[in-house]
UniProtKB/TrEMBL annotation:
One of its GO terms (cellular component) is centrosome. PANTHER family: FI13205P, OUTER DENSE FIBER OF SPERM TAILS 2. Belongs to the ODF2 family. This is SJCHGC04035 protein. It comes from Schistosoma japonicum. InterPro entries: Odf2-rel. The keyword Coiled coil applies.
Length: 282
C-alpha cells in the first residue's frame, strides 16, 4: 500500500498530492496564524508593559498625594490650634480694652471734677481779689497788700496755665497712637499727671490760704494801727484844745485829718508803730 501510495504520488498525481497540498496550505495558515498571534502577543506585552508603567506612575502619584494630604491634615491641625490661640488672645484683648475703657472713663470723670473744683477755686480767688482791690487805699500797708494780691493773681494764672497744659497733654495722649504704648501705659500716665495736678492744686491752695491769712493779719494790724493812731491823734487834739484854747486861737487846719499836729511824742509814737508794722510785714 505504501508502494502504491508512492506510485500514486509520483506517477498518477491522485489523492496523495491533494492531501499534501492541503497540509501545506494548512501549515501556511498555521504559520500565518502563529505570526498573527505572536504579533498580538507582542502588542499585548507592550500594552501590559505600558499599563504596568502607568500603574507604577499612578502608585507614585498616589503616594505623593497621600503624603501631601497628610501634610495638609497637619497644617490644618496647626492652623486650627493657632486660630484657637488667636481667638483666646482676641477675647483677652477685648476684655482688657473694655477694662481700660472703664478706667479711662473714670479718669476723665475725675479730671472733669478737678476742673470744676479749679473753676470754683478760681471764682473764689477772683472774688477775694476783687474785695481786696476795693478795700485798697494809699497807705503803705494796703499798697503792699495790693502787691501780694497781684502776686497771688500771677500764681493763679500760672496754675491755670499749667492746668491747661495738663489738659492739652492728656488730649495729645488720647489722640496719638504711639507705637509700643498700651492703654495701661496711657492710664498710668494719666493717673500720674492727675496725681501731680492734685498735689500741685493742694500746694497752691495751701499757699493761697497762707497768703490770704497773712494778708488778713496785715489788714487787721493796719486797721488796728490806724484806729490807734486816729484815737491818739484825737486825744492829742482835744488835750491841746483844752489846754491852749483860753490863750490861743486854734487854727482849724490843726484839726484836719489830713494834716495832723507834729509834736515829738506823736512823731516818736508814729515812728515806733511804723517800725513795728514793717518788722511784722517782713
Amino acid at each position: 500500500e505504501r508502494h502504491l501510495n508512492n506510485v500514486g504520488v509520483i506517477h498518477d498525481g491522485g489523492p496523495v498530492d491533494s492531501n499534501k497540498a492541503i497540509c501545506m496550505n494548512s501549515d501556511k495558515s498555521l504559520k500565518e496564524e502563529n505570526l498573527r498571534l505572536r504579533e498580538v502577543a507582542l502588542k499585548c506585552e507592550q500594552r501590559l508593559h505600558t499599563a504596568e508603567e502607568e500603574l507604577q506612575h499612578l502608585r507614585a502619584n498616589l503616594s505623593s498625594c497621600e503624603a501631601l494630604l497628610n501634610d495638609y491634615h497637619g497644617d490644618a491641625a496647626a492652623q486650627a490650634s493657632q486660630l484657637h490661640i488667636l481667638n483666646e488672645r482676641l477675647k483677652k484683648t477685648e476684655a482688657d480694652r473694655e477694662r481700660n475703657q472703664i478706667q479711662l472713663d473714670d479718669v476723665e470723670q475725675r479730671l472733669l471734677e478737678a476742673e470744676s473744683r479749679n473753676r470754683i477755686l478760681e471764682n473764689v480767688l477772683q472774688s477775694k481779689e476783687s474785695n481786696q482791690w476795693n478795700y485798697a487805699s494809699s497807705t503803705p500797708t494796703n499798697m503792699k497788700l495790693g502787691k501780694h494780691t497781684r502776686s497771688l493773681h500771677l500764681d493763679l494764672d500760672d496754675y491755670l496755665g499749667q492746668n491747661d497744659q495738663l489738659n492739652d497733654n492728656i488730649g495729645i495722649l488720647k489722640d496719638q497712637k504711639i507705637a509700643g504704648t498700651t492703654n495701661n501705659d496711657l492710664i498710668l500716665e494719666l493717673r500720674r499727671e492727675l496725681c501731680e495736678a492734685h498735689n500741685e492744686k493742694k500746694q497752691i491752695e495751701n499757699q493761697t490760704e497762707m497768703r490770704l491769712n497773712d494778708l488778713r493779719a496785715q489788714l487787721n494790724q493796719a486797721d488796728a494801727t490806724n484806729r490807734s493812731l486816729q484815737a491818739y491823734l484825737t486825744f492829742l487834739k482835744r488835750s491841746y484844745a483844752s489846754v491852749f484854747q483860753p490863750d490861743l486861737v486854734i487854727n482849724p487846719s490843726l484839726f484836719s485829718p489830713h494834716q495832723p499836729m507834729t509834736c515829738p511824742s506823736t512823731t516818736q509814737l508814729a515812728a515806733n508803730n511804723m517800725t513795728t508794722t514793717t518788722t511784722k510785714d517782713s
